[in-house]
Amino acid sequence: MIAVRGLSAIYRKELEDHFSSTRFTLVLTVVLMVSLLMSWMTATSVRKELEGFAKPSLVFLVLFTSSGAMFSFAQFVAFFGPLIGLVLGFDAINRERALRTLPKLVSQPVHRDAVINGKFLAGLTTVGVLLTALVAMIAGLGLRVLGVVPGWEEIGRLALYLLVSAIYVGFWLGLAILGSVVFRGMATSALAVLALWIFLAFFVPVVASLAADALAPVPPTPTMEDIPVVLQNEQIKRAVSYVSPMTLYSDATAVLLDPMRKTTRSLVLLGPMERLSLTRFQNPLPLAQSALVAAPHLLLLVAGTFVVFALCYATFMRQEIRA
Amino acid sequence: MAEPVVQTIELTKRYGAQVAVDRLTLEVSEGEVFGFLGPNGAGKTTTILMLLGLSEPSSGTARVCGLDPTRAPVPVKRLVGYLPENVGFYEDMTGYDNLQYVTRLNGVRDRDARPRIEGALETVGLAGERRKRVGAYSKGMRQRLGIAEVLVRQPRVVFLDEPTVGLDPDATQRMLELIRSLSRDQGMTVFLSSHLLDQVQRVSDRVGIMLAGRLVAAGPIDELARRSLGVDQARYTLEEIFMRYFRQEQPAAAPAGR
Ligand SMILES: Nc1ncnc2c1ncn2[C@@H]1O[C@H](COP(=O)(O)OP(=O)(O)OP(=O)(O)O)[C@@H](O)[C@H]1O
Ligand SMILES: [Mg+2]
User: Fold this and answer.
1) Which end of chain A has fewer surrounding CB within 10 Å, N or C?
2) Confidence class of residue A264 from pLDDT cuts 50, 70 and 90?
């Protein structure tokens, strides 16, 4: 009981710290500006396309997926979500070391993992509030510009999208906290997580193409006989790029936000019958079905988060408390 | 005979080849002030960390209030207070809020914590500074806030690691009186680590002297003086005892590298 209160004490303090911190205000400002700008551009371009349609359906989600502006909101979160996690977590433990509050903190009657958990949960709550505010704001903007009221299904999809996004940013928050456990210097841990982000965002796709081309080279002008090779190439590319949580997240949210998408695989990978059925039955997928399609990706993301946590605990438990 | 509040048997901590604490066996009984003396690097902090369950012993056992701090860290932490050497605070928070965080971590409801916090601030003489950011506290004020953080936990045993470091003579005197009152007025057992002998002498009932990880002497100060110096005079200081041990033990202990 006291241990639970200890956890909630840490959670509460960290939450207060986040919401009163300058860096939270800065992140909020930046993200707010970018997403407002983007969704305004998207909304106006969607409105032009919709002129003439009497009763458009399922356009609401287009606000989040259309890349009418430079990129869509979903892409924006995939790309910059990691940075939010980084900013909220990179100094979680090593700041306590620098302040010399860590020996005191862990000598209180709380389990050592409660320190990690409390900080993680506080960061996750902050992320949740941030994302919800953004989505609500874009939705409000959409309502005004488009004049379309979202249906329950669309609201459900947005809620699921929010949940998945929180998990995704949570993964990065966990990584940042791990960095703060492993590295004594706050700048060092921030840079380490940044390096990992750059690696996963920019290098993994390149490595995936290289690996695919090395293992299943596609001739410059493929003929019908080369179709198996082309498929194989594509498969390898996807398999390798799933190392990156960014790919996992993008694919999962694409299915959740777009009822017309029935698979996370790209069109090239579909069998001929599948492709036929796709075009013959262009009906939107029910929400539950979309969720089912995205489930494996989500499981991988959650599993990744658990691995990061296990590493966090294992390192922190064994560490000398003295600076 | 009551069970000792702090007890170690052959307690040992190795860092690689280096032995920081070497087969330490000692007992501290309820309500006494135990002075844990030794020069820099003697193993005082390492011992305290093991007693708090914050560092795992390489071998030997430790008991605090009858509990094993390695196996049952949280129950032990519920009973102890700890003032680390060079204690730190959340600089942007006020003294009061720092204390409140400690009470919350100890599962005390805010409404029950209030009188505790006010009382502790009163005791250490920081009542007037409670709304000030800790970042703006002087060294002496920070050190007293550290004691207040120990007090609000209402512990049975307190471990104070070099609580007078960096204090001027006046502040040192106040700190020592505060420590003395923990035992006398609040009935707490005090485990006081220091390398400043005359200070420990002023407040301790018993002392233990550590050199290079080993406990070379333990007992009431007058007894130690008689035994080691062979004198039974009214005017002796711990300094003399200490220097005597220091000269005897240090050359043997250091180059042997054990
Ligand atoms: N994490 C560590 N790794 C290696 N050696 C360590 C570690 N922590 C402490 N030591 C060594 O253990 C010995 C005892 O250190 P300890 O801090 O316990 O001494 P101390 O009596 O508290 O000294 P001081 O008066 O300077 O605080 C020292 O020689 C120190 O170098
Ligand atoms: Mg020390």
Assistant:
1) N
2) low
pLDDT digits (tens, 9 = 90+) for A222-251: 777 777 888 888 888 888 888 888 888 888
Chain B contact present for A104, CB below 8 A: yes
Res. A148: pLDDT tops 60: yes
Question: Which chain B residues are closer than 8 Å to A100 by Cβ?
Answer: 84, 86-88
Mean pLDDT per 10-residue segment, chain B (258 residues): 86 94 94 91 94 94 94 93 94 96 94 95 92 94 94 95 89 91 91 88 89 87 70 56 62 43
Instruction: Report the number of distinct structural domains present in chain A.
Output: 1
Note whether B106 contacts A3, CB cutoff 8 Å. Answer: no
User: How many CB atoms are closer than 10 A to CB B36?
Assistant: 29
State the complex-level ipTM.
Answer: 0.87
How are strands ordered across the β-sheet holding B189-194? B80-83, B157-161, B189-194, B33-37, B206-211, B214-220
**Containing domain of residue A300, as a range?**
2-318
Residue A28 sits at the chain B interface (C-beta within 8 Å)? no
* Residue A216 phi, psi (nearest 5): -135, 75
Tell me the C-alpha distance between B239 and B200, whole Å: 10
Q: Which H or E run contains B192?
A: strand B189-194
Examine residue A286 and state whether it is found in any structural domain, yes or no. yes
Could you tell me if B126 lies within 8 Å of chain A, comparing CB atoms? Answer: no
Residue A323 lies in a domain: no
Residue nearest to atom 27 of ligand 1 (CA): B40
